[in-house]
Write a structure and sequence with these properties.
The protein is of the alpha/beta class. The protein contains eight helices and eight strands; from the N terminus they run βαβαβαβαββαβαβαα. The protein binds D-xylitol-5-phosphate (DX5) and zinc ion. The site of D-xylitol-5-phosphate has 22 residues, from strand 2, strand 8 and helix 7.
């Protein structure tokens, strides 16, 4: 099943509660939360108190994307905060299996993310242990960037590996996705689609979400 995971990075944080209610009303299941530390990426976004507030205000799946150095320092905290999916970056740590096991033992879902310049082959050995793999289609750090076309090759290759090995891992893509390129991303094999600016910069969010859902109907 194809899922839309709206990234709140482009939301109006003064109205975050209202915006979350709109997403719920439109039947959105996942909400993508970008956490940045100013070290792993050259930007600082939101952190623990915001995740806590979101958790208290929604039952949507918290699809949290941690762009932070040495994420192993905070895994216990992310679990305690109620993140449902904990995505950490392959490039940010050398404790991959330690993190995977900790998240899985807490009955949360674990995702690993790769930046545009990281080869997809690096992540293949971990796929059997992951609930989700996240392919970045822009350099992480900022919303509103242009989709990197080479990501499509990576997405297709990972999709082939998942299917050939009959893995349960979801394939998420994040960065630069708009109504006019989402079909290419779906055709390449993604099943979780992150959209930030294309939703949150629109006044009428319901209409744009419906347009995405119409496109999704043509894919499994
Ligand atoms: C970038 C973030 C993305 C971002 C996507 O580092 O991981 O989730 O918010 O925003 P758009 O859809 O505007 O590229
Ligand atoms: Zn993200």
């Amino acid at each position: 099943m194809i899922k839309l995971s709206p990234s709140i990075l482009s939301a109006d944080f003064v109205k975050l509660g209202e915006e979350i209610k709109i997403l719920e009303k439109e039947g959105i299941k996942y909400i993508h939360i970008d956490v940045m530390d100013g070290m792993f990426v050259p930007n600082i976004s939101i952190g623990m108190p915001v995740i806590k507030s979101i958790r208290q205000n929604t039952n949507m799946v918290l699809d949290s994307h941690f762009m932070i150095e040495k994420p192993e320092r905070y895994i216990d905290k992310f679990i305690e905060l109620g993140c449902d999916i904990i995505n950490f970056h392959f490039e940010a740590t050398d404790k991959h299996m330690e993190i995977i096991n900790k998240v899985k033992n807490s009955n949360k879902k674990v995702g690993m993310t790769i930046k545009p310049n990281t080869s997809y082959e690096e992540i293949l050995p971990y796929l059997q242990y992951l609930d989700l793999v996240l392919v970045m289609s822009v350099e992480p750090g900022f919303g509103g960037q242009k989709f990197i076309e080479d990501s499509l090759i990576k997405i297709s290759a990972i999709r082939d590996y998942i299917n050939k090995n009959d893995l349960k891992c979801e394939l998420e893509v994040d960065g630069g996705i708009k109504l006019d390129n989402v079909e290419k991303v779906l055709e390449a094999g993604a099943n979780v689609i992150v959209v930030g600016s294309d939703i949150f910069e629109k006044e009428d969010k319901a209409t744009i979400i419906n347009k995405y859902n119409e496109i999704f109907k043509n894919f499994r």
